[in-house]
């Protein structure tokens, strides 16, 4: 706003111009008119200093307010920048606009000094400043790109949400993490919530390798030097937990704990349909993976699972031979073709038999697995290990008859073939006998 203040000579000049005369205004108007105009002019001109003072005061107040707001805004902006710098964040590129009540940066990239593998591409970062009310940061369109050691990255993610002076309002974000054990991990539409020391990520979509899961919730929680990742709003009570340990001695380790739970729903989450034969089966165990710091060295892992209710995958006639519990122990190696994992030595332990074999599984776009193992028991071993049953009676009869010159084999082989191909339920086959009084080969299938 512009204020115009005129003196008496200027007023007279305006009057002459408006009335069309070049003479003296007082003589043209006459003595009475001159007296009246003189009195009015004196009165108005007497009010001019008061008006000028009021307008000057208003201008001064507005100027001070604007200057104060700019000072406060600049101070808040610097305070936020200082706080971000203390946490190790650096702003690169982008177009910056600093206004009276807000600061805006567009098309920028944030990097974190504490973790060189963290960058954030941002469409817009806006900081609004409210005197006496603090500041608020709004981030739109962020895409977080991660690479490197996962423990440092997760700890950075947990710590970076704890802003002291400027609480951040971060809209849905996209996160991309590249790791040689998992391939490319993408989370779309992530909303972040901080619950104490736990960070909760709610993602519209999770993409790992070539698989997709929708409406996923993950919880991140620090635990001593490690970080625990679990499905759900918290780590406590989660049936599957991934503990990531930092590098030590040239290797970092991931430990996947599978708490006791039904087999079939768990398998279906990774794309394996085990069929109705496993409706009553439960599983528990752990999978560990050692990740060398040197990318030229191969990954190595170990898997140990225990399945209860295994006899439901066989008919009642084979149940005494197979038992109700199965333990699987195997090492893990990446498949040479880069698709899935190999199980080069699988040890299957049942109540009666011990089997050795190998297998392979793939969690990619077309999930599949295959397992083959074989073993055998002598007749005395079977007689000692079998529970009281018709099968044990057959073995005992054979042992008694063998002393009279029986020609039956004194060993019983057992084999397993377990396959799952994309688009069809898993096929499980047991092959038992003959031997030790079992005069035919029995085949038990579960589908």
Explain how this protein is built.
The protein is an alpha+beta fold. It folds into 2 domains: 63 residues, no CATH class; 259 residues, no CATH class. 26% of the residues lie in helices and 45% in strands. It contains 7 helices and 23 strands. It has a 23-stranded mixed beta sheet that branches. The longest helix has 62 residues. The chain is elongated. The N and C termini lie far apart (85 Å). The N terminus is likely disordered.
Keywords:
elongated; 23 strands; 23-stranded mixed sheet; 447 residues; alpha+beta
> What percentage of the residues does DSSP assign to strands (E)?
35-45%
Mean pLDDT: 75
What is the global morphology?
A: elongated
Order of helices and strands: HHEEEEEEHEEEEEEEEHEEHEEEEHHEEE
N- and C-termini, Cα separation: 85 Å
Helix content: 25-40%
Say how many strands there are: 23
Count of individual domains: 2
What characterizes the major β-sheet? 23 strands, mixed
Count of alpha and pi helical runs: 7
